[in-house]
Amino acid sequence: MNPRMLWATTARVLKQLRHDHRSLAMIVVVPSALLAIVYWLYENETLPPGAPRTFDRVGLIMLAIFPFIVMFLITSITMLRERTTGTLERLMTTPIHTGDLLFGYGIAFSLMAAVQSAIATGVAYWVFNLDIKGNGGFVVLVAVVNAVLGVALGLFCSAFARTEFQAVQFMPVVVIPQILLCGLFVARDHMNDVFEAVSDWMPLTYSVNALQEIAKNTDPTPALWQDFGIMAAIVVGLLLLASFTLPRKSS
């Protein structure tokens, strides 16, 4: 990869996002708005004295799931838009490498993911009093990596789509099964053997595991760092795979 072309791609994508107000609103506002809906769902919950709120468990995991979904959609559709408008094909006629292109996209959207995750975590903590055991920094870190995971998966899936509609069709195939099997609805050790084995290969599982470790412990644990490392490795692996599968032409 060429560092100059890598950063040029990053700057171009950030400039495009700065002028795309709808995408900016979706990145910055939507996760916090959805988190507010989750909070209000449990607002009138009746609990025994001293019992933890359901929102503290569900809301913490949603800090991973909502950015993951939003960044997957934004990234996959943006890359398809580059292809259908001919921008991608024109870029491919230059000396730029696919790695420069995809990692440039990854860096640009990762910066936006960091802003998104920081805002959502701040809203959860200061507005909705989410109990994060004093680990706000680690919650933001996991949320950022999970949003970046959505970016990487979106870039990877966009390589196999021809239209924006096809990119959206990856949602029920790639994203929704991960949400169902990540441990949000049913603890993974309570699933049948097949589903538990499948969930071991799903990236979102490790995001939820990491946040559950944060919820149970006031200090970072080896399991948290292990999950964090697996997530980071998956992000890099998906970007590398996407760089190999991205066609040099749009047709």
TrEMBL record:
GO terms for cellular component: ATP-binding cassette (ABC) transporter complex. Signal peptide: none annotated. This is Transport permease protein. GO terms for biological process: response to antibiotic. Keywords: Antibiotic resistance, Cell membrane, Membrane, Transmembrane, Transmembrane helix, Transport. The chain crosses the membrane at residues 21-42, 58-80, 101-126, 138-161, 168-187, 228-246. It is a multi-pass membrane protein. It is found in: Cell membrane. The lineage of its organism: Bacteria, Bacillati, Actinomycetota, Actinomycetes, Micrococcales. Residues 22-249 form the ABC transmembrane type-2 domain.
